[in-house]
Amino acid sequence: MQTIAKTMAARPLTSITLAAMLLLVSLGIAKVAGDDSKNTGSNKGNDMARVGDLVVEVCKNMSDGFLKQIHFDEEPCISVLRSDNRSAVAKDHGDLAIVAFDILEHRSKEIASKIDSLLHGLTAHNWTERALQFCVADYATVLHTIPLCRNMFLDVKPLGRKAGYEDAIVALECVDRLGVATRDCSLRMINNWDYNQVEVFFDVTRHVSLAWGLIEMATDTLDDHSTW
Ligand SMILES: *[C@@H]1O[C@H](CO)[C@@H](O)[C@H](O)[C@H]1NC(C)=O
Ligand SMILES: *[C@@H]1O[C@H](CO)[C@@H](O)[C@H](O)[C@H]1NC(C)=O
Ligand SMILES: *[C@@H]1O[C@H](CO)[C@@H](O)[C@H](O)[C@H]1NC(C)=O
Fold first, then answer.
1. What is the pLDDT of residues 16-41, one digit of tens each?
2. Residue 127: CB within 6 Å of ligand 3?
3. Which of the listed residues 27, 93, 120, 199 has the most CB atoms within 10 Å of its CB?
4. What is the dihedral of CA 122, 123, 129, 133, to 10 degrees?
């Protein structure tokens, strides 16, 4: 029963995602998508894999469609995880998920202060200002929610691949909120600000994907209900 209720709870958001995607298409964001796929292509040739390297294995899975809805190009995935030296000593996916949460939190704080300084630098009351005000709210949510998700995952982490679906899904639902909030800010910014500078906002959503993917791998739970 509980499973069904939770699954359904995630559903209404899907229509928001669809609406957002249509918005993206209609506003001609195709260029960004194009750049992304170019990156994917070039990464394939640049194989820096070492057999048995957990970070590399994880990032291969993040980039090759193993996780269906979730994607992060292999090379940036590796460099993001390796930016924290704890990745080198991570014993399993669960350890890496915690690293990913901490990197995400750090990155989100940076973006939140970038949003503040952009807002203070504006000389006109215009749509950029409104977009930034929404982003302030989005990132307040993000920064409040990350510790919550991290703690929820810490409850599940010792169970690892033996974690029950219900336990894993709670942590994923929490991360889903981060995805939605960071995406909403990105979409407002791309519509109301300098198109060439929004990539940093989308980048945070990729970091959310990384945490999501690691939780899925850590708990052996594939969920098709990410809604961002
Ligand atoms: C990567 O995905 C494969 C399935 O394609 C899975 O068997 C393997 O355990 C995954 N590796 C890691 C490190 O998650
Ligand atoms: C990571 O680096 C910091 C210093 O930058 C050090 O204090 C810490 O012990 C290192 N951790 C690991 C796991 O190597
Ligand atoms: C809003 O004003 C700022 C200058 O303060 C400008 O840089 C920005 O492009 C404007 N945004 C829109 C959507 O016109």
1. 444 444 444 343 333 333 333 334 43
2. yes
3. 93
4. 60
